[in-house]
Amino acid sequence: MATSxxxxxxxxxxxxxxxxxxxxxxxxxxxQTLTNKTIQGGAITSGTAVASTSGTSIDFTxxxxxxxxxxxxxxxxSTSGTSNLQIQIGSGSVTTTGYVGSCASGAxxxxxxxxxxxxxxxxxxxxxxGVSIINSLNGLTYCEFGNTGANSGNIVGSSGGSLTLGGxxxxxxxxTVNGTDTFDAGSINILYE
Length: 193
What we know:
17 strands; 0% helix
């Protein structure tokens, strides 16, 4: 598929393309056709929704290096116990230390250390829905904010935190703080851009 840029001033093309000489500038009346070029950003890519009905964690891997924002979506997610849900990110492997921030529900506040905690005081029968967004601050530092709500108990969790990775983010894991409660209902997916 070819993309045409037409009527744009000051766009300079590098050498190497067919019909794309070094230093060619598109003027106000010129047209340049780009063939087989990758344009990053501007598009939101959806992962594949995963049923959160078994296991102790759900991983999304192979996230492209150019991604600057990841949205984690929870739909009726439940676990076998009362440990809070958390999101862990990583580069090559999941990072389990160094997270700072907190998640609050009313006067109850839970601190972060091993992950971005996104729920507070949930029960085994709670079904959690909501969204958590992770943004790149400067390449290796990532900031999280989100809101989740439970189907019972009028529980709403508001979270915010940050983590600096040793490399570019390429994976997201959803698990519980204790790491042993198992998922038993709902679904989880991500969007990235």
